[in-house]
Write a structure and sequence with these properties.
Blueprint: H1 11-14, H2 18-26, H3 28-42, H4 52-65, H5 69-79, H6 86-92, H7 100-114, H8 121-129, H9 134-164
Helix pairs in contact: 3-9, 4-5, 4-6, 4-9, 7-8, 7-9
Length: 165
């Protein structure tokens, strides 16, 4: 299987525009770091109470919410190797949480992704009340921030490509 975390590192090779290829080639290290960041938040060595499959499903959900099927496909490729439960697979498809813990997690994920100004301390309290540890909450925040960032970088690159196409 090819590396599912090669979306950013391979952008210049995929680009149709010579100008975009050159710009991305100059920023190859930054693009590689974007890939490494995704890998670090989706499949960390220590995942706490957020298993890899759940993290990957959340990444797919965030990518789709941002309209980035390219990024969603990157994480779906990895997700397919994880043998997720039906409840976890439903997260990627936009379903609500199956229990209070899942509902708190997805409320936080969706709010920060779709309406970040509405995120509040109540979301954090709900996560803690649902059994996540402080460390889990930080890991979830990192995951949400990273995948939203990746989606925005890809959208920016694609917009620039359209300009030079």
């Amino acid at each position: 299987m090819s590396n599912p975390f090669s979306t950013f590192g391979s952008l210049s090779a995929q680009s149709r525009s010579g100008e975009v290829q050159a710009a991305l080639a100059e920023r190859a290290k930054i693009m590689q770091l974007c890939d490494a960041s995704g890998q670090a938040v989706v499949t960390p060595a220590a995942c706490g109470n957020l298993p890899h499959a759940q993290r990957c499903a959340i990444a797919i959900r965030i990518a789709r919410a941002n309209g980035s099927e390219e990024l969603a496909t990157t994480y779906a490729t990895l997700f397919a190797t994880m043998q997720p439960t039906p409840e976890v697979a439903a997260i990627a498809d936009g379903a609500g949480g199956a229990d209070a813990r899942g509902a708190a997690i997805l409320s936080y994920v969706d709010t920060v992704t779709l309406t970040p100004a509405k995120a509040s301390r109540a979301h954090i309290d709900a996560l803690l009340g649902a059994g996540l540890t402080d460390s889990d909450v930080v890991s979830l925040a990192e995951l949400v921030a990273c995948i939203n960032f990746q989606a925005r970088v890809l959208a920016g690159v694609r917009l620039v490509e359209e300009t030079f196409a």
